[in-house]
Structure formats: C-alpha cells, structure tokens
Amino acid sequence: MTRVVAIVPAAGKGLRLGGGVPKALRLLGGRPLLVHAVEALRRATLVDDIVVAAPAAEVALAAELLGPSVRVVEGGAERVDSCRLALEAAPAAVDVVLVHDAARALTPSALIDAVAAAVLAGAPAVIPVVAVTDTVREVDPTGRVVRTPDRSLLRAVQTPQGFHRDVLARAYALEGLLVTDDAGMVEALGVEVTTVPGHGDAFKVTTPADLILAEALLAARNAAPTRASPGTGPPRLEKGSDVVFEEGKLFQEGNARG
Predict the structure, then answer these.
(1) How far is CA 188 from the centre of its chain?
(2) Measuring CA to CA, which residue among 37, 68, 19 is closest to residue 204?
(3) Mean pLDDT per segment of 10 residues, for the chain of length 258 residues?
(4) Can you give the pLDDT at residue 176?
(5) Would you state the pLDDT for residue 155?
(6) Peptide bond before 160: cis, by omega within 30 degrees of 0?
(7) Which among 72, 69, 66 is positioned nearest to 89, based on CA atoms?
(8) What string of DSSP letters covers 3-59?
C-alpha cells in the first residue's frame, strides 16, 4: 500500500511577521501557526506520516506541542535544507511526499487530500493554484515596465505541493537553483508539474496584516462551525500535552513565566 508523508519545513525566522519568535510559533487564535497546520494534516484522510523540521533551539518544544505521532527534526539554514532533512527522516516505505508551509495554517484538509490523491493517481508533481486577481507587470532592474503578462494564464501557487518521493529526492540533489518553491526544483528536472484548484483559506501568513486576516477567518470558523470548510475547525493538541499559550510566549506547565 502506498504511504503518504507530509513534511513541514518550519525552521525559518519569519522576520517580516515579527513577534520575536520563529514564524511557525506565532500565535493564531491562541495557538501556534505550526499547530494549526499540523492539525489540518492530521485530519486529512490520505496522510499517513508527518515530519516537521523545527529551529534547532525549538525542537523539544515543537515535539511537545505536536505529540508523539509527529516526528520533529532539526531544520537547516535554508528552507531547502530543512526539506532535505525532513525527507531523510521520513519512513522508508513512503512513496508520496507532500511539502506544506506551516505559515499556511488554515489550509483545508480537503485540499491536502486533493493534492495527495492526484499524486496517488499517477501525477509525478502536483501543486494547488488559484487565479491571480491583480494585474501583474514585469519590470526591469530600474523599475521600467517590460511587459504585462496575460493574467488569465497566471496562477498563484499554494501548498501542500505533492510529489513522488524519488522525483523530489532528485530535485533536492540539484545545486545552485534560484527557485522559490519545491515545484520549481522539480521543473528543473524536466518533470511535468500539474495543478489542482487551490483554496482561498490556504493563504500564507507572512506579514502582520496576514495574521489579522487569519485571526478574523479563524474567529468566523469557530463562530459558525457548521459552515466551515471541510476538514477545518479548532486545532487540538494530543492528550498529555502540558503546553500553555500566552500572547507572544510559549510555556511548558511548571516552568516560570516571568
């Protein structure tokens, strides 16, 4: 039986979001972005295993937050390094890999399953996309407009992105690529990348304004749970967790809060 692993590179500093803690540990609705993202992966019916790459100083805390069913490893200096380390830590029996951003904390589980299902059906690489609503201009280094692409042909890319394990491993072996996501590395191999419809809730929390939007969306979900997107809802911690959340801080029960 084909197994699916989701890897979550969560070792970045997230300086644009601020807050004095790694971005994945910024609170959303009283819980870290990382917890929300992992809970969505847990609720997905096709995900068998989850591996998180956390900041070196936060590995123990991340493991406590996420519980024993999630493997937490130390991340690398760059996102791709964290992805490589997480992939190496994935079970050998895994054939399909989903790479998911912790900052896309409100991604519906139905979208996660849609990406996984497309790879399981035979596509070597799959990305969720949404239409671009703004007009986009290409400019040169001086800021002069070079051209205006046809917006109808443009798509904004989300995560999780799904791949056959061997394809992703070959992509991670490449050096010196100037790409911004995993699918870009796979494209460099000449592998076809296909798409599935994305979801508006799967936006990336990058700036303080994004966090405000995410807070509003989460509050709306919690106020009307029967109208929430499939696979969403308040995240949970595994039994036995003794982590306490306060705005801007994370504590383990019994530790001083000074």
Answers:
(1) 22
(2) 37
(3) 92 69 90 97 98 94 95 94 96 96 97 98 98 96 97 97 97 89 96 98 94 95 64 43 45 39
(4) 85
(5) 97
(6) yes
(7) 72
(8) EEEEEEE-----TTT-SSS-GGGSEETTEEHHHHHHHHHHH-TT--EEEEEE-GGGH
Amino acid at 27: L
**pTM: predicted TM-score of the whole model, two decimal places:** 0.85
CATH number 3.90.550.10 is the correct assignment for the domain at 3-125+159-252? yes
Sorted by where each begins, the domain ranges of the chain are 3-125+159-252
Cα separations in angstroms, 145 against 140, 152, 153, 156, 178: 7, 19, 19, 21, 22
Burial class from Cβ neighbours inside 10 Å (0-12, 13-18, 19+) for residue 86 reads buried
Ranges of H-type helices in 90-140: 109-120
Tell me, what DSSP letter sits at residue 141?
Answer: T
CA–CA dist 125, 150 (Å, integer): 24
**Structural contact between residues 149 and 138, judged by C-beta atoms closer than 8 angstroms:** yes
